[in-house]
Amino acid sequence: MLTVKGVVLTQKPVGEQDKFIDILTDELGVLEVLVKGAGKISSKSGCATQLFAYSAFCLHRGKRGYILDSVSPIRIFYSLRDSLTAVALASYFSQVVQFSVLPQASNREIQRLFLNCLHFLAEKQYPESMLKSIFELRMSALLGFMPDVVMCRSCGAYLPETLLFSVEEGSFCCKACAGSAENGIEMPAAVLQAVRHIVLQDMERIFSFRLHEDCMKILCMFAEQFLQYHFDHRFSALDYYRAVCRPLDEQN
Question: What H or E segment, with its residue span, contains residue 23?
């Protein structure tokens, strides 16, 4: 018997009543679990095994993998369902986690980041664009793709007024050293400070910063491009998130 706390990343039906779920655990990576009778009205596992639910799972080993014995919900994130864009963004987070987490690896900080982002997304405490950037940059750093945010790689300037940050090289040059180079995203010092904050601060403090709207757009562009380049994978949920956000952008 195995007892783990995990958050549901995906679910897929099997036959008429059963389903498979993938759960992110803190110590054992992503586990695939068979939930028998999940489709029955009388099922006791319903809410605790639904998408994005954080629950305590009791599992046993079957011939082909883990089978659910019992489950107790810890946090369900019901209010995520109030927003189509929030569900789409949470699905993107799930796909990134499932793609990148190694089996049988300790993932305590990744699970914590994912749950914190789900919490703030459900509570609408921060803008979705900000949560998306935080998740992308911190997730990249946790997986070993830490951007070099210390100083200009040419002259050593710590906080130049304007700089060019290379997604490919993961480092920046001040505008003076970059000259006419076009290989990078131009950003003001405020955005560089935000990137430093996200990748270097303790987990409980990474959400505590503010940026002007124009700077936030640059941060969002940089964070998305940085993750996409270093992960080298197309996430279908990101395409869907962009699609559902577009009509809202056109209304504003």
Answer: strand 18-25
Per-residue pLDDT at 37: 85
According to DSSP, the β-strands at 30-35 and 66-75 are parallel
Predicted confidence (pLDDT) at residue 241 exceeds the cutoff of 60: yes
pLDDT, one tens digit per residue, over 167-207 is 999 999 998 898 766 678 999 999 999 999 999 999 989 99
Partners of 70 in the β-ladder: 58
User: pTM for the whole thing?
Assistant: 0.93
Burial of residue 196, with CB atoms counted within 10 A of its CB: 0-12 exposed, 13-18 middle, 19 or more buried = middle
Residue among 214, 234, 210 nearest 224 (CA): 234
Instruction: Give the model confidence (pLDDT) of 47-71 as tens digits.
Output: 899 999 999 999 999 888 899 999 9
Query: Which run of H or of E encompasses 71?
Result: strand 66-75
Asked if residues 25 and 107 have their Cβ atoms less than 8 Å apart, the reply is: yes
Domain ranges in the chain are: 2-76, 81-150+157-251
**CATH superfamily, region 81-150+157-251:** Recombination protein O, C-terminal domain (1.20.1440.120)
* Average pLDDT score, the chain: 92
Cα 6 → chain centroid: 15
Q: What is the dihedral of CA 220, 221, 224, 225, to 10 degrees?
A: -160
The whole-angstrom separation of Cα 55 and Cα 72 is: 6
Question: Which helix (H) or strand (E) segment is 25 a member of?
Answer: strand 18-25
Q: Average pLDDT for residues 22-41, to the nearest whole number?
A: 88
Distance CA 145, CA 128 (A): 23
What's domain 2-76's architecture? Beta Barrel (2.40)
